[in-house]
Amino acid sequence: MRLASLLLFPFLLAATSSESPQKGLPTLHKAGEPSLVLTPKLSKREPRYEAIKDLARFNARSLWDGPRPLPDDVRQGSLGTCYFLATLSAYAHADPESLKGLFARNLDGTLALDGDGRAQVMFYRRTDGGGHVRDVVPITAEIPVDKNGIPLFAKIVDEKLWVASLEKAYAVWNDRFPNTPQRTKKKYAKKGWNRISGGWPHVVMEALTGVPAEHVKLNADPASAQTAYDRIHQAVADGRMVAADSVAVKAMQLYERVKTARTSNLVSSNEPLHLPADHIVGNHAYTVLDAFEEDGQRYIKLRNPWGYRHHLDRGSGTFDLTIEKFVLLFHALDVAGSGAPTSA
Questions:
Q1: What is the tens place of the pLDDT at every residue in 39-94?
Q2: What pLDDT score was predicted for residue 139?
Q3: Strands lying side by side in the sheet with 285-294
Q4: 110-148, pLDDT tens digit by residue?
Q5: Which domains can be identified in the chain, with CATH numbers?
């Protein structure tokens, strides 16, 4: 249900929290990195894989070129992973140190490689009992590229590799580990990179943190506006990830939401309300950065993982919407949970 891209990339360091397994969260088996094949829907033949950088040179600087990853490092490519990339941008905004902890690293901060020279990325997988186990996903320093050597999926911004590396690891994890979110949801209908095309931010939040996240439905009325503003404001203050899901580009669905917005006095009856007018992409996941008030009006600050707002507006991907238009044009919030990962 979302647009995005993927770039397979190499690995990264992990934060101190990943230097040793947490008690009660044993590391499961390590799956060898497969050859991720794109189905004919995306490519007539398997893409060429190419190492953009030498694996031995990977360190904190090559991953995010500074003390921490940034929300604007995230740029979606041609695959439908906006749900995943919007969540990564939210993580970089809310808790960059924990984001760095997804990658295994040595005590001196260098990338921790396995015996085959691959980097190791950690994801949390929910068990049948409702707890979580932590999987280690090894990945090489290669990404799929086109005939010109340009990455097919997630874009590389300022030579920062953390986004492409995590996207590749998420694809490997869902394609080769059992009972991962995309395998369960898709019921094996898709394979390889296609398996992670389409999804939900709250599912990714749980995979990154080991803590269940919330998917909060929004109606186009004053009650939802209050709920959305309060939930976003509190989550941002707590340092938790927040994302939002835009409505589908379907005339009837938009008509019903606009009708509700007007009859509930959320908006005035003569205000033009539709996706193109506000440059919102339908069926798309956005990063939520803040909720604030200015001159008596409440706003939500959003970021499109494309890196720009809309096809009709190639300006900054970060912008503000009034809370009223936010609940009209977005049908759900995804809010990360709090606390420690739950054991199996």
A1: 545 555 566 777 665 444 555 566 777 778 999 999 998 899 999 999 999 999 99
A2: 84
A3: 214-217, 330-335, 242-246, 285-294, 297-310, 313-322
A4: 778 788 777 889 999 998 888 899 999 988 777 777 777
A5: 16-209 (no CATH), 214-335 (3.90.70.10)
Residue 191 CB neighbours (<10 A) = 16
Provide the β-strand partners of residue 50: 143
- Angle CA 309–311–314, to nearest 5: 55
How far, in Å, CA of 25 to CA of 101, rounded? Answer: 15
CA quadruple 124, 125, 126, 131: dihedral, nearest 10: -50
**pLDDT at residue 243 in the model:** 98
Tell how far CA 78 is from the center of its chain.
15
Quote the tokens at residue 98: 């924990």
Rounded-to-integer distance, Cα 28 and Cα 170, Å: 16
Mean pLDDT of 157-170: 88
Per-residue pLDDT, 249: 65
pTM, entire model = 0.84
Task: Copy the structure tokens of residue 34.
Answer: 């497969």
Can you tell me the distance from the alpha carbon of 285 to that of 304, in angstroms, rounded to the nearest whole number? 8
DSSP state of 299: E
Q: What is the mean pLDDT of the chain?
A: 79
Diameter of the chain by CA atoms?
Answer: 65
Contact between residue 180 and residue 127 where contact means Cβ atoms under 8 Å apart: no
Based on the number of CB atoms within 10 Å of its own CB, is 81 exposed (0-12), middle (13-18) or buried (19 or more)? buried
Structure tokens at 280: 């919102």
